[in-house]
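assembly run, all chains below
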Amino acid sequence: MSHTAELIAVGTELLLGNIANTDAQMISEGLSTLGITVHYHTVVGDNPQRLSEALEIARRRADIIITTGGLGPTYDDLTKQTICKTFHRELELHEDILEEIRTWFQKRMQKKMPENNTQQAMLPVGCTIFDNPVGTAPGCAFEEGGVHVLMLPGPPFECRYMFENRAVPYLRQLTDGVIVSHEIRVYGMGESAVEEKLHGPMTTLTNPTLAPYAKTNEVMLRATAKAETAEAAEELLKPLVRQVREELGDVVYGVDVGSLEEVVSELLRKRGLTLSTAESCTGGLVAKRITDLPGASSIFRGGVVSYTDKVKSEVLGVSEAILSKYGAVSEPVARAMAEGCRRVCGSDLAVSVTGVAGPGTDERGTPVGTVFIGLASEQETLCRQYSCGRGRGRSRVRTSTAQNVFDLLRRYLLRLPLI
Amino acid sequence: MSHTAELIAVGTELLLGNIANTDAQMISEGLSTLGITVHYHTVVGDNPQRLSEALEIARRRADIIITTGGLGPTYDDLTKQTICKTFHRELELHEDILEEIRTWFQKRMQKKMPENNTQQAMLPVGCTIFDNPVGTAPGCAFEEGGVHVLMLPGPPFECRYMFENRAVPYLRQLTDGVIVSHEIRVYGMGESAVEEKLHGPMTTLTNPTLAPYAKTNEVMLRATAKAETAEAAEELLKPLVRQVREELGDVVYGVDVGSLEEVVSELLRKRGLTLSTAESCTGGLVAKRITDLPGASSIFRGGVVSYTDKVKSEVLGVSEAILSKYGAVSEPVARAMAEGCRRVCGSDLAVSVTGVAGPGTDERGTPVGTVFIGLASEQETLCRQYSCGRGRGRSRVRTSTAQNVFDLLRRYLLRLPLI
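ok done. output:
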């Protein structure tokens, strides 16, 4: 049997634009991998009458209602009360949950539980309790007249935990079989080109399915299959993932991986190599992204942000003759930066970046987006020129440059053709 | 007269969780500064029947409906058609708009306009046209039975432009007076402490109003006033902004500014000073944030990411004796890093960061979140110890450390007490 869900987010802060409704995105993504169709998202303020009206509308058009928010201890947290009124359920006090909340306050906050937190221990009669180890508000679920109502807390961190660990197991019981999905990550091919190459499977397949997701500067595809067992689902996915790899070639940089820098870090770790970075226009962004990852110190030695010619020459040893002859944004400077960086940081490999991030051109009139990326190893130094960011501003030039650095490293380490 | 708005986002990609509904946040924030109350957000897929039902519900409970998305050229872009059907309007072809779209394709895409783009030049009879210089889909608005319906394109960049430059002027005509707001930025005081200090004005004021907005690692307050003229609104805001400054003190780092690093960059520029950075645990994040800002090269000389002792000693000149005696995460090393960085980069000021970002402690068992920040000038070197991130993981330690670096610089440059 197929299910239709509606998400109702409760919170005036959403209607004021203080925050975006990221809970809805997270839950929708999760529901789609469970094979549950979402027809509507609704956002309503901390207002019992309007919430009640939204619930009345939702129960007519969905058989799964998931609410987020309004489970807190204050007077404007009224989700449970309003749902119970609308669905004619009583609330009852759970002494054990009250005790847990009291303990939570003592341990985490080192203070006595304020009295109004008592209402968090009130839950609908006969509900499935979703206990909450990451906050004070438990969630819950019940079924009434064929409609399942699930209540989750609003803060994104709590909501994600409670959805993944409490709501998903509850919802799995309503659906038959197992759903498995894989994320295929693509860099170096635009979304429209990817869709053109995979138009067939994207539009015609029903199980498994293939769908594109927009990411900054890259494309992510999700392949999803439903079967009686995880093994059977994997069998359905295998040929699809293979087909995607064949159609797209080496722009597929990984399946179920976090990012290009994660792939590069893993490759370096496997080969026992270390890296250092010399950056001009990216100003530390490449080093920042490598060191975002835990355990970076085993593969990353350090970096130099050479924002002036003085730093390029005195720290990295780029000769002043080269700087004045070719200008800072040039292939010879990128090569010398990489070689110098490798030497001073004592790493196996070094990458360098010099380019024009904008908004203005450099003093030689080099256009915004022009970037040289160098790569030095013990054996050789190479350099590639890029045009990054396509006129979409400084931030895009920098992000896209960093992506190109990591893709160049990936290709170098895997001995793939360097684009 | 006060207005009530409902936002309807059209797009199956939102219901699949491919993207978050950031358009709704942006528009809601804008409407709140216009004094227009938003009661509901609705998200619906590319489905004419369900969109039509959503419109029927919305027209009963709002007098301003703003739709986003579904104005594109493909078969599933059906917002205009569905709205016209629901509100009994005809669509008519605008030859001049068609010509503009043709020209846009020739100029921007260097290709002939595909035939299905013709439908983008079809608009409701008698509507106000919102021409779109940043894309091909024009928006529009009309009034029917006391309800204003505004249609905006979905892609966030286009939507923001069209909202700010087309929808806002249209909506201003519906509201009396002028609304002015100021953003007050706060670092170094938690949201609950800020709310406690300003509980009075936040809960009792109606014009002007004061509302808190959640930001990463800081607090933003927005003061908004409505009056007949901008000058009169400013007069209403002045005492409120003064009161906030008095209540909160020097944790207010700016009004209508972009970020702490922007304030620091501006202070450096005014004083004609330059900066360099020596980073361990932040791994380039501080340099990255300074160089995110256009024009950074006038105040930023460069930086060193010293992820190993070798780089600390060979590039920054930190003595090996100090490193082995005190360990890399220590006050003497932070001081030596700042002094060395200032020397090799040739800057007036240098900041240094050494700490434990986690997930593990360092080899001496220093707890995650322990950070030393050094600051060297010609006259002196100082250092402060922090406990950053409060156990919320590597990313939070790094972000919070960078914030502390910029706040230390701000306080130093303004001769405020260093916390």
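The first helix of chain A runs from residue 12 to 15.

Chain A touches chain B through 76 residues (CB under 8 Å).

not gonna interpret more than that til we talk
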